[in-house]
Design a protein that fits this description.
four-stranded antiparallel beta sheet; TIM Barrel
Length: 429
């Protein structure tokens, strides 16, 4: 049994002959934790026992109220320190940087992320037509006990949603998810008895330990989650362009004991990233804009983890290096300069801007159409763009714009909406 020393809420593991994965056991899902005389002992347990203990821990958190927020760190084989945060009331400690599995082609990057200390992985039933779940499943076959596994299913009839859950479990090569999310949830979905029944049944049957939603509705959905008392987690867009009201919503959700996972944290604009300096090894070098953006998001203590899409080893090194790092005065100036350049090419509707909402005379929700375009031109994934576009209501599809030569709506931030409509026609028409 390994002893882990605690000082000032920071957890240090003693290096032993054990594997690096075991030394990071404090952040792994399948451990039992006991505190004795200022030391923290970690003992292995099996999956069935953990699920039972995890559910009990979740109930204890909910019934007794949240304890003060703490940050934890542990040794990693590749980096000086990996930082973890409490994941809502789940009893799990998630790495500050999670892994968004939405555009990946092989398993080596996933293995490297786990080896580096990342333990929160998020994907979806629909990503790359199921390929992302299948690729992640190849890793889960041997490393399931090392991570907190999240996937998402879309809205539909009860039977279809239940079949999608079973298909996802099969692809991911596991019998139980840690977290099942309703993908792209709207306010009305959270009051739909059929949807609630599907998720409640999945939890009762042991197909998932926790349930939650991902949403782009930043106005109504967070409040509904708090009111319902049913959901355990919220995945929500949050980045440098998010207005203060979004941060307030996040705080309210987290204060209710609901886990908050930040997405859309990087301001993706149509140009490649710059090379990735090692900000831990070289304190004199500039960090990238993307690293500064992540550090800004992680300054919010009510964000439990973030899930940037990682599709290259450079992305992994870039993202994981910011854990535990404070945003400096110079980096704040860097972000102000970068945001001024990005403002005219990045739709802030993703972050909570409502400047164009209800302005289109034909009823198109322009920010939703822009979001789909951004998957192609910002993320570099036409597949994701088309996948999300197909989920839009007919009223917000580009066919509605065919009679307009130029977009009659003027973006309050200077984004060329007519150019975005032309891009949408080229992609989706």
């Amino acid at each position: 049994m390994e002893i882990i020393r605690i000082e000032d809420s920071i957890i240090y593991t003693y290096k032993t002959g054990r594997s690096p994965a075991y030394r990071k056991a404090i952040a792994c899902a399948f451990v039992t934790i006991f505190t004795y005389k200022g030391e923290l002992k970690v003992a292995k347990t099996n999956r069935r026992d953990f699920i039972r203990q995890g559910l009990a821990a979740g109930l204890a958190f909910t019934s007794t109220g949240m304890v003060s927020r703490k940050t934890y760190s542990a040794v990693s084989s590749n980096f000086t320190r990996v930082v973890y945060r409490d994941l809502g009331s789940t009893g799990f400690k998630a790495s500050e940087i999670g892994f968004g599995v939405l555009h990946i082609t092989d398993t080596s990057l996933l293995h490297a992320a786990i080896d580096s200390g990342i333990n929160y992985f998020d994907t979806a039933h629909s990503y790359m037509n199921g390929k992302c779940e299948e690729i992640l499943g190849k890793v889960m076959k041997t490393r399931r006990n090392e991570i907190f596994l999240t996937t998402k299913i879309g809205r539909g009839r009860q039977g279809k949603m239940t079949r999608d859950i079973d298909t996802s479990l099969k692809r991911l090569q596991t019998d139980c998810l840690d977290l099942l999310l309703l993908h792209g949830a709207g306010y009305d979905n959270l009051k739909n008895d059929d949807i609630l029944r599907v998720f409640d049944t999945a939890r009762q049957q042991g197909k998932t330990r926790f349930v939650g939603v991902s949403t782009h509705d930043l106005e109504k959905v967070p409040d509904r989650l708090v009111e319902s008392g049913f959901w355990d987690a919220l995945t929500i867009p949050y980045n440098y362009f998010s207005p203060p009201v979004v941060a307030g919503k996040i705080k309210n959700v987290r204060d209710a004991g609901i886990a908050v996972i930040g997405m859309k944290n990087l301001i993706t604009i149509p140009r490649p990233r710059k090379p990735f300096p090692n900000i831990r090894g070289d304190k004199s070098g500039e960090i990238t804009n993307q690293q500064a953006l992540l550090k800004w998001v992680l300054e919010n203590q009510y964000i439990d983890t973030v899930i940037p899409g990682i599709s290259a080893f450079e992305h992994l090194e870039d993202d994981i290096a910011v854990m535990g790092e404070k945003l400096t005065f110079g980096e704040r100036r860097q972000l102000r300069r970068y945001s001024e350049k990005a403002r005219s090419v990045y739709c802030q509707g993703i972050a909570g801007c409502t400047g164009c909402s209800g302005k289109c005379p034909k009823g198109v929700e322009i920010n939703e159409l822009n979001r789909c375009v951004n998957y192609a031109y910002g993320y570099g994934s036409v597949e994701l763009a088309i996948e999300n576009y197909r989920q839009l209501p007919l009223s917000s599809r580009v066919d509605t714009c065919k009679e307009c030569e130029e977009c009659p709506v003027v973006c309050v931030n200077g984004l060329d909406l007519s150019d975005n409509i032309r891009k949408a026609r080229a992609l989706f028409a």
